[in-house]
Amino acid sequence: MPSGPDAFVADPRYRTEFEKARALVLAHPRRWRVIYHYDADGIASASSALHAFARLGYPAQATPLAGVERERMRELADATRGPILVVDTGASWLDLLAQHPHPVVVLDHHQYPGAPAPPPLPAHVALVNPLDWGVDGMSELCASTLTWLFTVFLDPRNWDNAPWGLSGAIGDRQHVGGFRGLNAVLVAEAIVRSHIVRRPGVALFGATMGAALAGGIDPFVRGLSGRPEAVGRLLESLGIDVARPPTSLSADETRRLVDALRARLAEAGVAPEAAQILDQDRWFLPSLGLDAEEVSNRQSAAGRARMPGVGVAYALGDPTAAERVRLAEESWRGGILRGLRRLEDEGVNSMSALQWFESPDATLAGTQAGMAILYLLDPERPVFAVTNGEGPTKVSARTTLRRVAEGVDLATTCRVAAAAVGGEGGGHRVAAGATIPAGSRDRFLDAANRELARARDARPEAR
Q1: Which of 142, 166, 175, 387 is positioned for an S-S bond with 292, CB 3.0–4.6 A?
Q2: Could you check whether the bond before residue 308 is cis, i.e. omega within 30 degrees of 0?
Q3: What is the CATH number of domain 12-196?
Q4: Does domain 347-455 match CATH 3.10.310.40?
Q5: 69 or 241: whose pLDDT is higher?
Q6: At what angle do helices 162-171 and 181-192 cross, to 10 degrees?
Q7: What is the dihedral of CA 275, 278, 283, 284, to 10 degrees?
C-alpha cells in the first residue's frame, strides 16, 4: 500500500523542518511570492509549488532568479509585501531572508555557509535542506523532488506533482544510473500510485532514427553527434533505416545499436557509468503522455531561452506555452550541439588543475560544460565555462562524481575564487557557479586553480 512521507527519513530534523515550513504556509492563506532558479530544477520546483498553492486556494506570483545574485534577491524581498517561498536557491542568503518581515520558507539542496550545521533562524523563517538530515542534495534529492515532497506534506493529493519532481531531477542529472536515496523512494511511491510508469528503452528522441542520433546530446558521441552523414553510415552498417522512428526498433536492433554506441563511447574514453544513460530505465508520465526526459528538456529549454515563466505555464496546462517550450527545446538542443561540436573541434584552455572555455551564452554554458566533462574532455580536471557580457561575468563549473568522491568540491572552489575577486559563488560539489566582476576572469581562474591544486595536493595519495 502507498505510504505517507512522515517516515521516509529517520533523522528527526527531517520532520521538524518540513513541519515548521508546512505550519508557516498553512497559517498564512494569502498571496505568496515564489522565487525560483531559472534552470530545469528551479522551474520544476516552482511548477510543483504553484500547483500546491492553487490546490490550497492561495494566489501566488512566481519570479525567476537568473544566477548567484544577492542584490537581486534583496530587491525582490524588499519589493514583496507578504510571504515568500524560495525554491532551488536561497541557502546562501539566509541572513538576508531572515530580515524579511513576513514568513519565508526556503526549500534548497545547495550548501550554505557553515554546512552541514544549519544556522539559527527566527521563528518566521523555515529552511528545509536535505543536508541537515543526512540526504545528499547532489545525488539523492534535488530541489524539485524536495519541493514535490513538501507539497505532499501539505496535501497527499500532491503526489500528482510527480512529473515536475522527475523533470527537475533529470535536469540536475540525478537520474544517471537510476534514481538513488530519497529520490528512489519518491519515485517508487509514485509508481505505486500510477503517476509514473517505469519502462525499458533507449534515450532517443526524434521523428526518425537519423534525426534522433544526429541531434542527440546525451550522450554526445564523438564523431557521430551533429554529423548526419556519419549517422547514416552507422545505421546502414547496422541494417537500420535512417527514416524509421526510434519506437519501431526491435529488441535485437536496439541491442545492436546500443552495443555500437557503447563501443564508440568507450573508444572516446567515456566512463562506463556515463554510458549507462544509453539504455537505463525510462520514466513515462501518463498524465502528459511523454517521457520524463522530454519534459525535463522542455522546461530546461524554456529557462535557457530566458522565458522560465513559460516553462512554469507549461506545467500549469497552458496550451500556448506547451507549443512554445517544444519549439524552445529544438533551439536549445541545437545550441548545445553546436557548442559541443565547437569544443570537439577546437578543444579547451588548460591549467594545471582545471580546464576552461568561453561560452557566448550563459544560459547554455552549464549544460555544455556538464556534457563536455562527461563525453569530450579530460575527466580528471574540472571544467569552467565563462561567459562575458555587458554586466558581470558568469561562470559555470562541472566535474564528475568520481572526482567528487576523491575530494573535489566545486561549491567551495567557486565560493573561494569568487570571493577573491569580489564576486559570489556556490552550488554543489559536482556542479557550481559564480557571478564575478567584469574583467576578473583570469584572476578568478587563477584562484580556482590554486584552490583545486591545494585540495588535490592535500589528498593522502598525493603525499
Answers
A1: 166
A2: no
A3: 3.90.1640.30
A4: yes
A5: 241
A6: 150
A7: 160
